[in-house]
Amino acid sequence: MLIEENFHVIWPLLLILAIATYTDVKAHRISNLLSLGGVITGLVLHGWTLGLDGLLVGLGGALLGFSVLLPLYMLGGMAAGDVKLMAAVGAFLGPQSTLCLLYT
Questions:
Q1: What is the pLDDT of residues 12-46, one digit of tens each?
Q2: CA 12 to chain centre
Q3: pTM over 0.85
Q4: CA 12/CA 18 separation, integer angstroms
Q5: CA distance 69 to 2
Q6: Distance (Å, rounded) from C-alpha 62 to C-alpha 3?
């Protein structure tokens, strides 16, 4: 996993989450560009550090984060920005850590 093997690359995720928190509190909105940029950055960092396997791990995390929160959005329990932001988080964390994050 990207974080366990290369902890120094987590700062972009922390920056993305800080910006998302600020804009969500201020305007009740999380930018699509921020979420998409987060997914792309997570995937690029996984691919760069761990190759094709890392890219697949990042993609798996993004899909897991998105798909687990999607039903909550569809039921009206959260906004779409939260779901897309979780996809970005998943792209950084990979599926195992994303699953731990979602269920702790």
A1: 999 999 999 999 999 999 999 999 999 999 999 98
A2: 11
A3: yes
A4: 10
A5: 22
A6: 15
